[in-house]
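Technical note accompanying the year-one report. For the benefit of new consortium partners, we illustrate the data format agreed upon in the data management plan: each record pairs a sequence with a structure-token string. No post-processing was applied to the example shown here.
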Amino acid sequence: MHTHRHDNTVVLLGLTPALERWSFGCEKGTLERTILDPRARRFAHADSSDSAGIQPVVWTTGGVTIGRHDVVGSQRRDLSLAPDRPGDFAIVADATRPDTPDAGWFIGFVHHPTANAAYLRVLNTAAVKQPAIATIGIPQPVLRGLRCAWLQPPRR
């Protein structure tokens, strides 16, 4: 999912399906494996890097939750969408709030398990416990493994 170099260590953040951090000590040939979240997660997105290239926040989805993982401070908080199940979410940064942590939006599909329906939801990343900013009903089911990406529109 994401790699960066910290001094003589290469750090990998990835899903196995747990969220894990693997640190490879280049000089000594060591490997350190840390499980950041043991729950099975389906998708993960890293937030913007700090000045050292480290991803301080990783967002994941799995089960009925969207999880925010502070990989530096080793803290986690979840937003439950129960009974709905989140698919992959793209993270869209808010350029008007560049100095605000978690400033942006989640945009992605949410699946209702019994209604055979899907919704496109927009959630504020800084206030994930608040209701969705927008919910758009999709008239047919959407494949749960569908990946999301956000592309900035070209400037004119």
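Partners are asked to follow this layout when depositing records. The first strand starts at residue 2 and ends at 6.
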